[in-house]
Design a protein that fits this description.
The protein is of the alpha/beta class. Helices cover about 30% and strands about 30% of the residues. The protein is built from five helices and nine strands, in the order βββααβαβαββββα. The radius of gyration is 14 Å and the shape is globular.
């Protein structure tokens, strides 16, 4: 599926979190949501991105936003990753990649001349009304959290 555009309602979904508890996007109506998709727990880029969101947690709270991370890793992997790096926000397990496909972030990637399928690092800023405000594609972990905070402020 194509990536949902800014100005459109964010597709609702339900996934298990790091504790195996069911989490729906719609349960966060009334507050902004930073929905970020990342390839894999405990890898260098994904760790850098997650730790930046962690370090800026108070700024997200001030902005009235909740951060939700999504990857194809299972809940037990998410639990270890959260614990190891003290991540304060939920990590959602998209093991069957349905939500990644729904958001258009599952696709062909290339690294060192090798092609494979995986999650394309992307972030969606969703308003309190459930409408996508901003889409970040091809995200680079360095400085991304600050870009997201600026999008929330503007």
């Amino acid at each position: 599926m194509p990536i949902p555009e800014a100005g459109r309602p964010a597709p609702d979904f339900e996934l298990p979190d790091h504790e195996g508890k069911s989490t729906r996007l719609s349960q966060f109506r009334g507050q902004s949501v930073v929905l970020y998709f990342y390839p894999r727990d405990d890898t260098p880029g994904c760790t850098k991105e997650a730790c930046a969101f962690r370090d800026d947690e108070s700024a997200y709270q001030k902005a009235g936003a909740v951060v939700l991370g999504v990857s194809p890793d299972p809940p037990d992997s998410h639990a270890r990753f959260r614990s190891k790096f003290g991540l304060p926000f939920p990590l959602l397990a998209d093991v069957d990649k349905k939500v990644s496909r729904l958001y258009g972030v599952w696709g062909k990637k290339k690294m060192m001349g090798r092609e494979y399928f995986g999650v394309k690092r992307s972030t969606f800023v969703i308003g309190p009304d459930g409408v996508i405000r901003r889409v970040f594609e091809g995200v680079r972990p360095d400085g991304h959290s600050q870009e997201v905070l600026e999008a929330l402020a503007g």
